[in-house]
Amino acid sequence: MSTPSAEVLGELLDRARQAASEAAELLMHPPADLRVESKSTPTDAVTIMDKRSEALLVSLLLDGRESDGILGEEGSDRPGTSGFRWVIDPIDGTVNYLYGLPGWSVSVGLEYEGRPVVGVVAVPTYGVTYFGTSGLGSFRERGGQAEQISPSEVSELAMALTATGFGYASERRAFQAEVLQTMLPEIRDIRRAGSAAVDICWVADGSVDAFYEKGLNPWDFAAAAVIAAEAGVTLAGLDGREPNPDLTIAANPTLFAKFHDRLKSLGADRAV
Question: How many other CB atoms are found less than 10 A from the CB of residue 137?
């Protein structure tokens, strides 16, 4: 498999960062009426701003690159011929956004021939943007200053501050609660940000030690996957699988192995 040059990846990273920044700025000024609709369940919300953000991202990312493919949470889906595909989540953490809570993000990932190569996760309510490029490292930017990031060195489950999330369907949430009930006494504590992309970036910069969640889609982790990998985080499913809807786990390699085995023993990937 060929790899795009560092120069090309740098240019595409700049495009992704600019698009994510403009979408984040748009989202910081919602209308009085968000016009909320439901998707898979009554609690799976989508707002007019999700759709406006996705439309803006598509227009910016594909401007002059009409041969690229795209996959967006709110329905933007088309194949491309360039080998590149943008995978976008216009608001990761829509419920946070709907309630006026911080922590939602704009996630812009780029794949080349199916492999994640560029990732940007903008979190405007925290004043931070995470970004990474395959082979060139991952960074956290605050106040115009970027610094390279790395995960914690915590190696024991008992000391692992762990992020997770829950599905929209009540049956899935009930099952996830059962798994968590068993896990909670075995780990340090749980944190719930409301955005899987942010959770994974928090693992990458050491803000938390581990993350796991069932039910993620490609747009939830496409950008964060690059950031995590370049920081030295293992992000995968069970038994060597890629991150997937059955289960996605993130941690430093030593801690990952222990989370993997414990979650597997609990059947955390079971269909619900």
Answer: 15
Q: Which residue has the higher pLDDT, 191 or 2?
A: 191
Token couple for 214: 């069932």
Q: β-pairing, 69-72 with 77-78?
A: antiparallel
Q: Residue 155 gets which letter from DSSP? A: -
CATH of the domain at 90: 3.30.540.10
CA 125 to chain centre: 16
Domain membership of residue 54 as a residue range: 6-148
Report pLDDT digits (tens) over 31-84.
877 666 766 666 556 778 889 999 999 999 999 999 999 999 877 788 999 999
For residues 141 and 166, state if they share a domain. no
pTM: 0.94
Alpha-carbon gap, residue 108 to 88, rounded angstroms: 5
Say how many C-beta atoms besides its own lie within 10 A of residue 241's C-beta.
Answer: 12
What is the rounded CA–CA span in Å between residue 239 and residue 237? 7
Residues 124 and 180 in one domain: no
Q: Which two tokens stand for residue 116?
A: 């994640």
The amino acid occupying position 260 is H
